[in-house]
Amino acid sequence: MPAKKISPYGSWKSPILADLITEGGLRLEQVRVDGDDVYWLEGRPEEAGRYVIVKRSTDGSSADVNSSPLNARNAVHEYGGAAYAVRDGDVYFANWDDQRLYKAASGGGDAVAITGEPAIERGDRYADLVVSNDSNWILCVRERHHEDREADNELVAIRTDGSGATKVLATGHDFYSSLRQNAAGDRVCWLSWDHPDMPWDGCELWVADFDSTNGSVSNEQLVTGGTDVSIVQPEWASEGTLVFITDESGWWNLTKWSGDSVVPVLTEEKDHCGPAWAFGFRTYGFVDDGSVLLRDSEGGEGRFRAIGLDGQVGGSVTVPHTSIAELNVIGGDVVYIGASQTAAAGVVRTGLGNGASVTLKTSSDIELDDAYLSVPEAITFPSTEDGEAHAFYYAPTNPDFESDGTEIPPLLVISHGGPTSATSSALSLPVQFWTSRGFAVVDVNYRGSTGHGKAFRDALKGQWGVYDTDDCIAAADYLVGRGQADTNRLAIKGGSAGGYTTINALTFHDRFAVGATYYGIADLTVFIDDTHKYESRYLDSLIGPYPEAKQLYHDRSAINFTDQLSCPMIIFQGLEDKIVPPSQAEIMAGALREKGVPFSLMMFEGEQHGFRQSKNIKASLEGELYFYGRVMGFTPAGDLSGVEIENESAL
Residue 508: which residues within 8 A CB-CB, separation 6 or more? Predict the structure, then answer.
């Protein structure tokens, strides 16, 4: 093995280029099965982020269902989810540009719209699509927008014959999800909740009789739930038991209802699911014998466990994927999206009998030598007010380079979005982009993150802008204390809620040398009257009710304390973002300009909340690296497109 070259941290040459990341940036979502066929959704950066439904037939061939320019993506809650459904080869999907429902028939031909033009452009939106057992109805959530008031959310049944006939099944609550029909076809269930709760705070589980002849419900009955109980993924077992996941135990655990009482199926200190940011995700399915197939991980490996409805734990199948999503049972196999610490996400089919797996589609065809990949270490560390937080630490890793031994690596602290969400140890090429260049990276699950139980998740209530920031700083201090990060070269980045944490860390604390915010929040009051319905009351729990907590909103909004800004910052923003308005980025840039602090502002046409276009993903990643190099004093390897740095003379 040739000797490693000596080069400063941050300047190592890496094969993990921004171009490579966009080439391997295929988004895989929403796996569905229909008979023996498997479907999934691909978000394609090279097609400006267009979402395409792909059908994998039993003969191994794959074909696109929706041709360009149709884009199978919905905008309910702005985050969407479950944008398509399939039965007997007929595929129904929401189209991004007009938000109408379309049908792609099994016989072929162009997809045709089956819902009419809304009263206002993109005003009727559909999500959480399922097709009724008799194929006569699409059962879904409809979000109807108005010019002069908040949108209405309802459960509806829409005729599949193209007539446009629509029946409202449930209305009156602020939000709905998970409309599901039982095997017999005569009952449905759903979830509902109201402002100011988010679904991970509290919701209600309902059942009702369903008449498929005329698309109506009757005899509605509340099963369980409330403002302090979160329920996720209700599904009917074949014999009529209603199975769901609830956090009443303190963890999101598997539970059932048979018509008389709610009974835990499996109670353990594990979260069997995550927060419902998007519609339709699946963490369990039903096996032919009636048991529940539940995803899990243990000892750094992924597995599927068979759980009887009596709570008996049966056999398990171990798989090499530590991250498992979109679980579907198909005969004696399970199909899912799986990823590991060294393997990119893929649509995988695994035999439940022998554990043999085949990858149907990978998010990246890129082949990388594992020697360039940094394997994460799970760490837990102390934080403020006797708290603790969790993270994944990645050491700088490159088989071709090393430092001269006199320096400690710079550290990039990553704050995830949400904030009610979590990061995982699954392979992330954007993380490896940094570690292969000589950065250490710590990806933080601060207090409020999911996957560590209800108490940890609720710890951020009333403390957003405080505990998340504290925990990111504590992660950096912990690694500095271990000698794994240079105390003078700490960077922090994040998107959305993570961008808010980043901006706060750079404004209210003097700990970081530089930061990058992607569509981040600088002024919390924007969520009072300038954001979408789904999150319009989210801050009631994270900060406090408004206007009662008006002072807290002021005190935790960095825009009110620009006099404290002294840290260089690069700001990225999509111009079509409906969740965090572009004005937030412009306000921060204006404050940095006036203060004379070095900064860059990169605004992208055609991007919403999260970048989906290859050219913009590349530009933002390379721009961030270039900016860090100018601030920290290293020269990145390769030909990077420089970014305009205002107040650069102050560096």
Answer: 469, 558, 561, 564
Nearest residue to 140 via CA among 203, 74, 197, 186: 74
Query: Does 242 score more than 90 pLDDT?
Result: yes
What is the Cα gyration radius of the chain? Answer: 25
Q: Enumerate residues 6+ apart whose C-beta is below 8 A from 193.
A: 173, 174, 175, 199, 201, 202, 203, 204
- Domain 368-650 sits in CATH 3.40.50.1820: yes
> What are the phi and psi torsion angles at 388 (to 5°)?
-145, 160
Q: How far is CA 398 from CA 100, 347, 556, 615, in A?
A: 48, 29, 40, 26
The CA-to-CA distance between both ends of the chain, in Å, stands at 40
The residues pairing with 266 across neighbouring beta strands, listed in sequence order, are 254
| Spatial distance between the Cα atoms of 137 and 166, rounded to a whole number of angstroms | 9
388 three-state secondary structure = strand
Residue 3, Cβ neighbours under 10 Å: how many?
7
Q: Round to whole Å and give the CA distance between 28 and 601.
A: 30
**Joined tokens for residue 267:** 């109670």
CA 628, CA 293: separation in Å to the nearest integer? 46
Which residue has better confidence, 612 or 248? 248
Q: Do the beta carbons of residue 236 and residue 242 sit within 8 Å?
A: yes
In the 8-state DSSP scheme, what is residue 545?
-
pLDDT in tens, 416-445: 999 999 999 999 999 999 999 999 999 999
Two tokens, residue 624: 């961030």
Structure tokens at 172: 């009156």
The one-character DSSP state at 268 is -
Residue type, 304: F
Any alpha helices (H) in 96-194, and if so which ranges?
Answer: none
Cis peptide before 45 (omega within 30 of 0): no
For 541, half-sphere exposure in the C-beta direction (CA atoms, 13 angstrom radius) is: 20
**Is the overall model pTM greater than 0.90, yes or no?**
yes
- Contacts of residue 106, defined as CB under 8 A and 6 or more positions apart, other chains included, come to 88, 89, 90
**For 125-161, what is each residue's pLDDT tens digit?**
999 999 999 999 999 999 999 999 999 999 999 999 9
Q: At which residue do the structure tokens 């604390």 appear?
A: 509
